[in-house]
Design goal:
Helix content: 25-40%
Oligomer: single chain
Shape: elongated
Strand content: 15-25%
CATH topology: Rossmann fold
Strand order of the largest sheet: 1-7-8-6-5-2-3-4
CATH class: Alpha Beta
Distance between the termini: 42 Å
Low-confidence stretches: 1-5
Number of helices: 9
Largest sheet: 8 strands, mixed
Number of domains: 1
Length: 277
């Protein structure tokens, strides 16, 4: 049975990631859609692009998924060569080249060949995020830019509580296990200190917000997008999903909306001018 902040072994499993979780963009898109109801709305690709104002040459979006950042950079920074990189060939199928299918822990780029890299909500999928950070530092030029993002431990706590309550109902327990949390392997709370081991000038941009859903579909689709990790959830997944929808419907009918508190952030840092030993 999982607990609050539980980490699924499958969250780093190469087969699960490339075939079930991100074989297409369906699950990722479901999670992205939930943020359409967030206030304030953060234009994340634009924020990232602002921090690349001084970049030139080659920029890689590593773990680019369905190309949200790729499209923005290619439209607004045609002076850059923007390369999409992902472990899943399936999710790259609809993207425009240049594209590379590769593992972020063993990138097919020469040392010091990239002027900037984006690693957005992805480092927690690596079996060893520190190996990935060392590899990112390797491929960046001296004084290159790394931009990454992740969620805080308390992010979307209301969804965790809803899932736990639904699981308790299904299992006949006073308290049920919490849902699988991907970002807990690289949470925002710890990210600045971990990045500072390999990079200089680590800056954190907080991106708080509140999501108010007035009908269950967006939140239930968000829950359903974790289907790839159902075996590690500690509950019968479909019955718990159905019970969560019932509880959510009751809350919306009573209160008019279900409120979710978002705590995420973007981190911008620089490659040391001299390699660290």
């Amino acid at each position: 049975m999982t607990r609050s902040g539980a980490q699924s072994p499958a969250s780093t499993d190469r087969h699960v990631i490339t075939r079930e979780a991100y074989g297409t963009d369906a699950h990722l898109a479901a999670r992205q859609r939930l943020y359409q109801a967030q206030h304030p709305r953060h234009d994340l690709p634009a924020i990232a692009a602002d921090h690349l104002a001084g970049a030139n040459g080659i920029v890689a979006d590593i773990g680019c998924g369905n190309g949200w950042y790729l499209r923005h950079l290619r439209q607004h920074r045609p002076d850059l060569v923007v390369v999409g990189v992902d472990l899943s060939a399936g999710i790259l199928a609809e993207q425009r080249p240049p594209l590379v299918v590769a593992d972020a822990q063993a990138l097919p780029f020469a040392s010091g060949s990239l002027h900037a890299v984006l690693v957005m909500h992805m480092l927690y999928h690596l079996p060893d995020p520190d190996t990935g950070l060392r590899e990112l530092a390797r491929v960046l030029t001296p004084d290159g830019t790394l931009i990454t993002s992740t969620n805080a431990r308390a992010d979307k706590r209301e969804l965790d509580q809803l899932w736990s309550q639904a699981a308790a109902d299904v299992l006949g327990l006073p308290e049920g296990p919490h849902r699988i949390s991907l970002s807990q392997r690289f949470p925002l709370d710890d990210a600045p200190a971990r990045l500072a081991r390999y990079f200089d000038d680590v800056r954190l941009v907080h991106l708080p917000g509140v999501i108010s859903v007035t009908e269950p579909a967006p939140a239930i689709a968000h829950f359903a997008s974790y289907q790839a990790w159902a075996a590690d959830s500690g509950v019968p997944f479909e019955p718990t999903l159905a019970r969560a929808e019932q509880r959510l419907t009751e809350t919306i009918e009573r209160d008019g909306a279900f409120t979710i508190t978002c705590q995420s952030g973007m981190l911008i840092c620089r490659t040391p001018a001299e390699p660290r030993t």
